[in-house]
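Before going further, learn to read the protein records used in this course. A complete example follows; check for yourself that the lines match position by position.
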Amino acid sequence: MDECQISTTAKVAFLSNPGNYPESAGRVEVVETHMAWVFMAEKYVYKLKKPVRYPYLDFSSIALREFYCHEEVRLNQRLAPGVYLGVVPLTCNRRGLAIDGKGSIVDWLVRMRRLPRRQMLDWMLRDGRLGACHLRRLAHLLAEFHGSCQSLPFSGEAYRQRYRNDIERNLEALQGLRSALGGVDYRSLGESQLSFLEHRSDWFDARAREGNVIEAHGDLRPQHICFPDEKPLIIDCLEFNPDLRILDKADETAYLAMECAWLGYSEAGKEFLAYFEQCSKDHVPFPLRAFYMAYRASLRARLLLSRLREIEPARWSRWQQRAYRYLDLAKRYTRALSG
């Protein structure tokens, strides 16, 4: 059988069955994301990339999915050693589908060790179990990681142009989604960010000149950070587009602080940034951090609202409410740009 004879629906159904795994799976929890299906068994996790193509990624062929599975494993060794166990084929013969079996390869899976859910940062925040010691360890790990990354050569103008392009892309996308935005004034958010880029060009130029632009993690959110023991683990690096991993160290850490605020724990985000500044010796003006937070919140709102094109209107409310919370944060941070 070739790839086209096995539908994604059939693959998902097969991987949802605990009896189809090479090890005892127990109950399999299935989670669908924008780009993948994730199958969480008792001890292991398997990820199946969707055969999709967007302007920022291409998983449309089995060869591309194999490549990015290997990239995911490679890149995540940096901050999650021992978690990503490898890439295994999903095969098919006359008996049907199998994980790493005999027959034609019809897709590829990333195999991971399952992390304890209650030790993820978002859960620890909600449960009130996150202490200063956890934030200090995380700040130390990230400062060490950022320090080990090679600085990338960018002129100030080229660095600012990257943000200018993204902000304009956000505005264009939100314009196309304005029917789902209600009365939200998204245009003034983008215009304020563009204005800040020009009026404080010296800050951006200095960040690029001083070597702060690196190939980082790219998606530093609480649900991607685990505290299983003394050393934190950070999973789900952006593997599908290297350009999205290239950013200022201050942008990456501001993103995490913004995501903590989105969950309702802005003080934890502020505390983390203070510890990170101590560990990295990198002082960032508050308005510049606010710019990065406003930009990230606007981007997250855009990505959430873009999901509306893929689902029926009856299911819009959940995505709209989440996007509105990001836009509210973007407004708050935008007000700080003149500080």
Remarks:
- The first helix runs from residue 8 to 15.
